[in-house]
Design a protein that fits this description.
By secondary structure, the chain is an alpha/beta fold. The chain contains 16 helices and 15 strands. The two termini are 23 Å apart.
């Protein structure tokens, strides 16, 4: 198989080819490393590439295949890992100068499980400082460019993950999502991103920042790829006290199911968001597909207000409390000035104010859950806008209206507050040829129905063969 074909295989296609000995792990790793060497200087998807380590592991995987050893479900599969997730012996910075030399002494549980299943780590992918999206990337590594148009943003904060999968630099990337950081780059880069239910995937050890909001999950080229990965990474581990007992849940067995009987709500604005008309048109058209697949689809949304103030208070106070000593000296060059300015606004909030935000988080859930008692799924645009140019945190005007700092991601962070499973899947392209994503949100703990609906949509509107061809034409 030609190297240019190898890099575009899905995870499940690659795994099957390796198992049938049509491809070797060495061939797959070499094809990807060669492409990374050629394209990463332009895209800046990876901030660290462990070439020698990956080659060594590929040779070991090939030897195991030759010996006829029992193989794990991801044997010989190369993966990319967001630079907030602990990787033993590989620098992990969280995009911050504070941790630019930090090398973990152990793997995060998710990486431990992936390695045990046979995966090979290619490197760490670029991420915004502590997951806080910046306008020009981190001062440590710079910005990641969108593979569909290098003048545009790749999303955040798992921007390197999204760009790597979209550009053929990895068939799988593992990301973290505390406000949309899996779904945002999935939408902007035209790949599939899945945020499991809170607690479904263990998060230990980790930077002690977004403990009650963060989810770990896959970015892939297909829904089946994500389902396979979930069977590897999900499940209880008491090192993370929030992990769920999964009862041996399987995810691939629901992918062929139809959608008959499902009650799906579609909302272009959640009742409060300002949405670009083109994004609204593309996602409305995509939502209608579900009615052709047997589901009942109606226009509806939960009776809740924007939780932006709640969310901002929660994330800022959490981070400010951890970085308190670094914020005492504003002249310090270790924290980016925009992040420092944001945190300074919340550093002196009282316990009463923070407690009030925590209470508001509960009240927000009390407004959400009755809606999901009546609907199996909620479908929305993933983002209120199409990808925007580098040098912006996000547009401050949408459809001719002034918007707040977080309004462009108004559909993602609410479901970190509630902990519900959510996915972003490619559903179309803007006039500029940039991807637009559709979000599917499920009931609490009902990850399987989200994947089932996403797989049905993918069969009706497949996206895997659509690639950013300009990358190779340049």
């Amino acid at each position: 198989m030609d190297k240019s074909d190898i890099v575009w295989l899905s995870l499940t296609q690659t795994e099957a080819a390796i198992r049938r000995k049509e491809l070797s792990p060495v061939e797959v790793v070499e094809a990807l490393l060669e492409r990374i060497e050629r394209l990463n200087p332009r895209l800046n998807a990876y901030c660290t590439v462990v070439t020698d380590m990956a080659r060594h592991q590929a040779r070991e995987a090939e030897a195991a295949l030759t010996r006829g050893d029992t193989l794990g479900p991801l044997h010989g599969i190369p993966i990319a890992v967001k630079d907030v997730i602990f990787t033993q012996g590989i620098r992990t910075t969280s995009g911050s100068r504070l941790f630019q030399h930090f090398v973990p002494q152990e793997d995060a549980i998710v990486i431990e499980r992936l390695r045990a299943a046979g995966a090979i780590v290619l490197g760490k992918t670029n991420t915004s400082e502590f997951g806080w999206m910046s306008d020009r990337g981190t001062r440590l590594f710079g910005a990641t460019h969108n593979p569909w148009n290098e003048d545009y943003n790749a999303g955040g904060a798992s921007e390197g993950d999204g760009a790597a999968v979209a550009a053929g630099l990895a068939p799988l990337a593992i990301g973290g999502d505390f406000g949309g950081s899996i779904r945002i780059p999935a939408s902007m880069c035209g790949v599939f991103g899945f945020k499991p239910s809170f607690g479904r995937v263990p998060q230990y050890p980790a930077f002690p920042i977004w403990e009650t909001l963060s989810h770990t999950g896959p970015l892939t080229r297909t829904v089946a790829d994500a389902a396979l990965v979930m069977e590897v990474i999900a499940g209880r581990d008491d090192r993370d006290r929030f992990t769920l007992p999964d009862g041996g849940l399987k995810y691939r067995d629901v992918l062929e199911g139809d959608l008959k009987g499902l009650r799906i709500a579609f909302s272009t604005d959640m009742g409060y968001a300002v949405v670009d008309p083109e994004v609204a048109r593309i996602t409305e058209s995509a939502a209608r597909v579900f009615s052709t697949l047997g589901a009942t689809v109606e226009a509806a949304h939960p009776e809740v207000r924007s939780p932006e103030k709640i969310y901002s208070m929660l994330i800022a106070v959490m981070l400010a409390s951890i970085l308190q000593d670094k914020l005492v000296t504003p002249s310090s060059d270790l924290i980016g000035p925009k992040l420092a300015h944001f945190l300074e606004q919340y550093r002196d909030k009282t316990a009463y104010e923070y407690g009030k935000a925590c209470r508001a988080q509960l009240e927000y859930w009390e407004g959400i859950w009755p809606f999901f008692a009546e609907h199996d799924l909620l479908v929305t645009p993933t983002l209120a806008v199409a990808p925007f140019k580098l040098g912006q945190f996000g547009p401050r005007e949408v459809a001719g209206k002034k918007v707040t700092m977080l309004d462009w991601m108004a559909f993602t962070y609410p479901f970190n507050i509630t902990g519900q499973p959510a996915a972003s899947l490619p559903c179309g392209f803007s006039r500029e040829g940039l991807p637009v994503g559709l979000q599917i949100v499920g009931r609490r703990f009902d990850d399987r129905t989200v994947l089932r609906a996403a797989a049905a949509f993918e069969r009706a509107r497949p996206w895997q063969e659509r690639r950013p061809e300009a990358l190779d034409a340049a």
